Amino acid sequence: MIGTRSGAWGPIGVVALVVLFVCVLAPAVAFAQQPNRRASIGADVYVLVESETLTAKQSFTAVLGGSSMTLEGGGVDVVRIWKGLFARVAVAHAGKTGSRVFVDSSLHVYSLNVPLTINMTPIEVGGGWRLPSFDRKGHVVPYVGGTALWLRYQESSSFAEASENTDANFRGGAVFAGIEGNAGALNLGVEGVYRTVPRVIGAGGVSAAFNETDLGGAAARVRVGVRF
User: Which of 37, 59, 198, 205 is the most buried if burial means most Cβ atoms within 10 Å?
Assistant: First the structure.
């Protein structure tokens, strides 16, 4: 209904994901295995919740009644790889139900009263840099980073033909910045995230009517984790 373009990962995309994952984490593993090194490398394992305002605001407002979605998920940051360098793998999921709609030439939206469920699952693989702490004990630490992004996007309706539903995978990128507070093994992070998945919608349907092409968005994220 939104109007996606072709963009499945396929075998090449899956291989690229695996290769990128290995390239990001390999330095951490190598560092940890070197003899006579002080065991300083660590891993933050966390759960996360975020509110994302989608770039294609008009398209999603027409279908879902609003342009924001709540995502829940988790991830791991491998920290202290080298100085402030860390690696990240995170996954989240959001689902929301609205209605199929018709948009006329004047951009008036008419609900067809046919339930439509949209699911979005972004997978992020990348890393970042932890900046100097705000306090001497290192309890409050700002950080920045970026990731490659793989997005699984699904539209489904119980009254639709199989060909009318959508199950596609797209590639994009994300940047983030945040601040982390820790007390012992526990830590709390607050982040701003911007995702872009360009030129994957707008081929038809609602997104074509509103001339919107990006499945990304801006999100505010809270994460709670434990450091090992």
Answer: 59
